[in-house]
Amino acid sequence: MRIILFGPPGVGKGTQAKILSNELKIAHIATGDILRDAVAHKTELGLKAKTFMDKGELVPDDVVIGIIRDRLREKDAANGFILDGFPRTLPQAEALESVFRKIGMKVDKVISMEVDEEVLINRLTSRRVCGNCGSIFNLMTDKIINLTCPKCGGELFQRDDDKRETIEKRFKVYQNQTKPVKDYYLQKDLLVEVDGIGDINVVTGRLKNVLSTERHARAL
Length: 220
Description:
By secondary structure, the protein is an alpha/beta fold. The chain is built from eight helices and eight strands. It has a single domain, classed as Rossmann fold (3-Layer(aba) Sandwich). It is globular.
């Protein structure tokens, strides 16, 4: 199966993509990972991406699309893949569609993981990081006493990108950019929304139900 999985910050799409990748035996393709891999292997596009990354700038769409195109041509993607968190904008979705046509692929399902914004904001603002060992915890779910790391005793702190003001800005950007992408895939009858609230295994079950329905439809 060829799947695109996206959702707002903190929804857990990376976690779910890894689980489904292992269970379905298909490639997990995360934009950040393939960018870092291309840079590490000093590919032509990787070196081009590095010039932007070193300056703290966003890597242009044409470079990212090129790297994704190369990744989709690798052997492990032939049996299927989960594209994690990409495309994020309408131009990216249109460019990706062009890549699929050129390499003779098509997407089977686009899944948008949906969670109420306030729930995610509370989840993200509750994250704390150990200044000593780097472990990440959540005040909502982990047993934390006096903001002390239960692993090493180090002091826990809140990262700037986990503060409410920053997260609210990220959500605004996501909503503004993603609505056109959802509309794009809705028009192609590819998009399905899945409730992302709940235990990890429960959400995985919902995603697998969607994909099971898709596989059954393709078999008919």
